[in-house]
């Protein structure tokens, strides 16, 4: 029975990977500039320098790859955060990552007059990492050490603080508001591959580390007392999981801004399909997260064409009904 279940899970994983590849290709083909699948193939096999080929290779390809990487990273972060905090609504926003990254970018713009999108990438990554580490440290203070409730409260408090500071600085500097507002809404538009290259080593390490600790997360999910009784070093697992969250959520926010709902919704979809085994939940979540963000990004191009809706707005539209369902189910204890 176990072997049969694993075979079905493997087949499902192959299907979701195939869907991700198809959506990456669709993201390259479809948009405001009219192109076709044949033209896309020619752009990569027989590049002629035309405007269409330039759009396909230098605009849409980076955008598609970045959307897939960001969606995967946010989803994996959500899986680990929900297991760590025992909170079904845990996400990078609860951990303070989004708010910390946004605040860092606004400070760089208003105080230091930084205008480079590439500089935003590193500044946002630094702000996200500092925020996440701060939440982890604050949540660990006290005789009981780190607890799910303390971590959640610390994250909520830090998020509120960073969000308030961000709004305050933007009110003071309206020019900064115009420049950073699109980034704060969450977007993969206009990103270049070099931005992904900047954080790809951190993302790749985070993906690998998440897979390596997957079996340990299964034991941790049973409860810390049970996990300790089985010989698991829970403190080490918490630190490793927190490192993964910092790398993946921080890197994703650094590239695309604070995109919400993926880290909340996707882990629940993955568990509904493959159960609670993190060895399957993590890879399923990674590709489901990529699919969701790719679908949201493609949809964002057509809502108010020729203009575009920030992809963070589309994920909110798609994710809100599921968020309400999860919240109601958690509240009712079912």
TrEMBL record:
Regions crossing the membrane: 7-30, 64-81, 93-113, 119-139, 151-172, 199-219, 239-269, 281-304, 311-328
Highest taxon of the lineage: Bacteria
Topology class, membrane: Multi-pass membrane protein
Keywords: Cell membrane, Membrane, Transmembrane, Transmembrane helix, Transport
Subcellular localization: Cell membrane
PANTHER family from the UniProt entry: FERRIC ENTEROBACTIN TRANSPORT SYSTEM PERMEASE PROTEIN (PTHR30472), SIDEROPHORE TRANSPORT SYSTEM PERMEASE PROTEIN YFIZ-RELATED (PTHR30472:SF65)
Family statement drawn from the similarity comment of this UniProt entry: Belongs to the binding-protein-dependent transport system permease family. FecCD subfamily.
Protein name in UniProt: Iron ABC transporter permease
Lineage of the organism: Bacteria, Bacillati, Bacillota, Bacilli, Bacillales
């Amino acid at each position: 029975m176990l072997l049969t279940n694993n075979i079905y899970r493997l087949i499902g994983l192959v299907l979701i990977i195939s869907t991700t590849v198809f959506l990456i290709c669709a993201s390259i083909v479809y948009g405001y500039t009219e192109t076709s699948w044949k033209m896309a193939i020619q752009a990569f096999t027989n590049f002629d320098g035309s405007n269409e080929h330039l759009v396909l290779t230098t605009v849409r390809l980076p955008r598609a790859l970045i959307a897939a990487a960001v969606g995967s990273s946010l989803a994996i972060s959500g899986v680990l955060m929900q297991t760590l905090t025992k909170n079904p609504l845990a996400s990078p926003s609860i951990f303070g990552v989004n708010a910390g990254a946004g605040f860092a970018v606004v400070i760089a713009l208003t105080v230091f007059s930084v205008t480079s999108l590439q500089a935003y990438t590193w500044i946002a990554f630094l702000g996200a990492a500092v925020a996440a580490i701060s939440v982890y440290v604050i949540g660990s203070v006290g005789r009981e050490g780190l607890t799910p409730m303390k971590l959640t409260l610390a994250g909520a408090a830090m998020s509120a603080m960073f969000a308030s500071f961000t709004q305050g600085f933007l009110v003071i500097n309206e020019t900064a508001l115009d420049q950073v507002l699109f980034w704060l809404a969450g977007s993969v538009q206009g990103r270049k591959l070099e931005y992904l290259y900047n954080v790809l080593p951190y993302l790749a390490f985070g993906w690998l580390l998440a897979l390596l600790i997957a079996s340990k997360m299964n034991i941790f999910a049973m409860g810390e007392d049970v996990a300790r009784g089985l010989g698991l070093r829970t403190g080490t697992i918490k630190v490793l999981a927190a490192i993964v969250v910092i790398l993946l959520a921080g890197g994703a926010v650094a590239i695309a801004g604070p995109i919400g709902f993926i880290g909340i919704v996707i882990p629940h979809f993955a568990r509904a399909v493959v159960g609670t085994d993190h060895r399957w939940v993590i890879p399923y979540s990674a590709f489901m997260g990529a699919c969701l963000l790719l679908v949201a990004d493609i949809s964002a191009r057509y809502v108010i064409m020729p203009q575009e809706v920030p992809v963070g707005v589309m994920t909110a539209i798609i994710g809100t009904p599921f968020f309400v369902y999860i919240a109601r189910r958690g509240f009712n204890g079912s």
